[in-house]
Every structure is written in structure tokens, then in C-alpha cells.
Amino acid sequence: MQYSVPRDQRAFEQPKVLNDWICAKCGVQNFRRREACFKCSGPRTDYDTSNEPTDEVSTHPTNSVLLSGLDALTTEDSVLNTLGPLTKLPLKSVRVGRDPLTNMSRGVCYVEMNSVVDSMFLHNQLIADPPVIDGRQVEVSYHKQVGPQ
Fold first, then answer.
1. What share of the chain is helix, strand, coil (3-state, %, to 5)?
2. DSSP three-state, residue 14
3. pTM
4. Do residues 71 and 132 lie in contact, with contact meaning Cβ atoms separated by under 8 Å?
5. Predicted local confidence at residue 46, as pLDDT
6. What is the DSSP string of 78-107?
7. What is the model's pLDDT at position 110?
């Protein structure tokens, strides 16, 4: 009788470390959905980001720019209101990454452009003068594309 799936057959699952966060104050592992440590009530903003997954960041230009470090209450409208005056390039889509359980922002935004060239122009412009969205200075990178383009 087998009670669980053997580890080698669970290769499709992400390790819990990629989903959860470690409190910088007391070192306890917390579920991703928590905004404060369950043990010491330390805020999530104080957790160690050195082990953050970078699987969404591309090392080469793509047609999407990834904005990270956003506030949990950031919306697509606030991103559009900030980027609108900065560029005349047409934006194909702007999507804020949201937690499926709470529908709160995960602190990232995907700005899709019509071409890689447009994306490169926007990326270079934002790198030269990083925008402040909802009181937070954001980090700019290319978003890694998944699947056929």
C-alpha cells in the first residue's frame, strides 16, 4: 500500500522554498499567502530575498518587460498612469501578477510590447530612469517567455 507519491515522481512540483518565504527577523518559514510572519509578526517586506526565484527574468531581450518590487495594492491603472507619460510606444498589454488565493498583487507587472525592438526601447528608457509606482522604485528586466512565441 502506498500513501504518497514518491519524490522522484513529483518532479513537476515546485520546491516549497520557491513558494514560501523565510522571515528575516526569526528565520521561520511562512506560507506565500502570509503578509506577516506567523511567529514574530514581522512584515513580509523584511524577508530575505537572496533566495528569490529568478525564473521569470530573461537574460536576453523579449517582447515583455518585467517590473518587480511593486506594492501589493498596485493595479494595472497605476502602472499605465506612470508609464503613459514616459513613453510614446504603444503598449500591447499590462498585467499585474496576482496571488490566486487573495487576488493581491505579487509585486510584479508584465508589460507586453508589440515587438522585441519596442521592448528594448522601453527597457533601456526605464533602466536609465527607473520609475516610481505607488511610492516604490521598481526593478526593470525582461520577462522570460514560456512556450512557442
1. 25, 25, 50
2. coil
3. 0.62
4. no
5. 47
6. HHHHHHGGG--SPEEEEEEEE-TTT--EEE
7. 93
Over pLDDT 70: what percentage of the chain?
78
Distance CA 22, CA 47 (A): 6
Q: Which of 116, 95, 115, 109 is nearest to 139 (CA)?
A: 109
* Spatial separation of the C-alpha atoms in residues 149 and 126, rounded to whole Å: 24
The C-alpha atoms of residue 86 and residue 31 are separated, in whole angstroms, by: 37
Which grid cell is 77? 491603472
Give per-residue pLDDT as tens, 1-47.
555 555 555 444 444 445 677 777 777 888 888 888 888 888 876 44
Q: Annotate 40-79 with DSSP letters as a single string.
A: T--BGGGS--TT---TTEESS--SEEEEES--TT--HHHH
